[in-house]
Design goal:
5 strands; alpha+beta; globular; 5-stranded antiparallel β-sheet
């Protein structure tokens, strides 16, 4: 646990939350500043700042709960769809340094856009540049 992490405070019960799911490794609760009714956060109960800090088992636990809650959240708020995502690091907009997945209910005409809109301008990349990036990613694996 991290003493200065708001999500760790929620896990410890020091900060109240509207919990919708809890087990030994994962906690899910409504976002205190929701983008839509039912906006839910899914976190590991152990403090991990970024995706890279999750071991395989904990990552699987988080994704299993996230997967199981998407349809449940949609049904609970009669949403037409959901946007599911993670901000991973400061530059990506991660405001709380504790891994957390967002389940954001979406409704026809809600004014929200696709996930492609979160990154601003799209880069212009040649086929050669795309090939180089793909090769670099494969090399890092």
């Amino acid at each position: 646990m991290s003493a200065d992490c708001i999500f760790c405070g929620i896990v410890d019960g020091e900060i109240p939350s509207r919990t919708v799911y809890e087990d030994d490794t994962v906690l899910a609760f409504l976002d205190a500043n929701p983008l839509a009714p039912g906006h839910t956060l899914v976190i590991p109960t152990d403090h991990r700042e970024t995706f890279q800090d999750l071991d395989d088992d904990l990552a699987a636990d988080v994704f299993d709960v996230l997967h199981g809650l998407v349809g449940t959240v949609e049904a609970a708020v009669d949403a037409d769809a959901t946007t599911v995502g993670f901000n991973n690091g400061d530059a990506a907009g991660q405001e709380v340094p504790h891994v957390h997945g967002h389940i954001i209910p979406r409704f026809e005409g809600d004014g929200g856009g696709p996930i492609h809109g979160v990154a601003g301008r799209r880069p212009t990349l040649s086929d050669e540049e795309l090939d180089d990036v793909a090769a670099d990613i494969r090399a890092e694996r």
